[in-house]
Amino acid sequence: MKYCSTCGHPVEQRIPEGDNRHRYVCISCEEIHYQNPRIVAGTVPVWEGKILLCRRAIEPRYGYWTLPAGFMENAETTVEAAMRETMEEALAEVVVDGLYSIIDVPHINQVHMFYRASLKDGRFGAGEESLESRLFDLADIPWGEISFPTVRKTLELFVEDVKNDSFGVHIDDIRRPMSATSKTG
Amino acid sequence: MKYCSTCGHPVEQRIPEGDNRHRYVCISCEEIHYQNPRIVAGTVPVWEGKILLCRRAIEPRYGYWTLPAGFMENAETTVEAAMRETMEEALAEVVVDGLYSIIDVPHINQVHMFYRASLKDGRFGAGEESLESRLFDLADIPWGEISFPTVRKTLELFVEDVKNDSFGVHIDDIRRPMSATSKTG
Ligand SMILES: [Zn+2]
Ligand SMILES: [Zn+2]
């Protein structure tokens, strides 16, 4: 951020009065431009005991498998965001069964939230950001080609919970850089 | 938003190629300036069966009682944000017991998250944004002077769960305008 989005004059970094953090503050109109984490919302879509994954048609992680998920938009709820992303990326209508995982990723200022979901009628496809979508048996999840640590973590938790037939809400965080963990798979 | 925060030229609202929503796009450098919901994180701080509430020293809702909560900052987790806000507003160190409520408030582009917590040593006070802090018996919660609908909802759920001695994670949303509900007392 270099310029004030309200008046177009330059901003500087300083600690505003009564605050304890550096903020971008406009040198002309004095507006404080706060920056906050973003939510990524998605689903774990299930159909007849299989999980629907999408193969990414965009960077980062082009060609890798992911759960359908993306940035939450203004004016929607987290559930709506998760359902919308599932429709956009996997062309699948889902019924949401419950919140499943919340994974903080503080070094990239994101919070990832996944909902458990069931395909409504078994139909799915490849949205514009996907090369393909496919239903995987839990034993056949392509662990070596998973897109992101939060997706991997959520899938690991899910496989474990299916074994135990018990689905709680999982709170976790991933603090190491994505580039490091994404190579361990 | 009127000006591009990257180059200082004006922005216009249009639907970028491959998108389906209006965005602020710079007419000069073409950067797309996305806007996303913000997370408000807080705690339900308990000590010897009582709940710690803070009376707000700032607008909006000056003088009303609230759970300690505030906007999550970059580079922290939701738990860290909730603990930080509890320290800032109630001068209380807490141990977090678990996620309690996630309440979407789509008309103001916010997601509120509250964690169940216990005071570490029973000490608390009034931070700069609080007139005072006080421990309330559940029977004495000042329902007529609660600050925000998400705080009211979380307190209602908590009182109910204490009765049943069962604390799950509650997902909910509040869609009506705050100004309407805040008058119902
Ligand atoms: Zn300005
Ligand atoms: Zn620009």
UniProtKB/TrEMBL annotation, chains A, B:
Protein name per the record: NUDIX hydrolase
UniProt entry keywords in alphabetical sequence: Hydrolase
Tagged with keyword Hydrolase: yes
Matching PROSITE patterns: NUDIX
Domain Nudix hydrolase: 36-159
InterPro entries membership: NUDIX_hydrolase-like_dom_sf, NUDIX_hydrolase_dom, Nudix_N
CDD domains associated with the record: NUDIX_Hydrolase
A molecular function (GO) term: hydrolase activity
Record keyword Hydrolase present: yes
